[in-house]
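Box 3.1 A note on notation
Throughout this textbook, protein chains are presented in two layers. The first layer is the amino acid sequence; the second is a token string describing backbone geometry. Keep the layers aligned when reading.
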Amino acid sequence: EVQLVESGGGLVQPGGSLTLSCAAAGFSFDDNAIVWFRQVPGKEREGVSCISSRDGSTYYRDSVKGRFTISIDNAKKTVYLQMNSLNPGDTADYYCATSILPQCTFDDYPMDYWGKGTRVTVSS
């Protein structure tokens, strides 16, 4: 069965850190981009970070630059999102998705597989 499985979410205090994982099952990252999105209930989904499995290039939304780091382990078929200096504005459900394109984009149209998400709550 082809699927993406996110893990690593939880409750963290402001200023804290979490590392999210996105593991691929049933397929390998093959010349495509892997994207982390997040969504707060009632609000639009937004792209957070992206990495290309082709060349390792990365992309971040402005609000997380310098705080979040995306990385990929092709052997483990896993993408990680290291999140530091978390603030309440980062609270959301985080999803990973794979794109049919090798270059990064936060658009929905090239995404073919989606995970079910992991919840991140930043609160004191």
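DSSP finds no helices and eleven strands in the chain. The radius of gyration is 13 Å.
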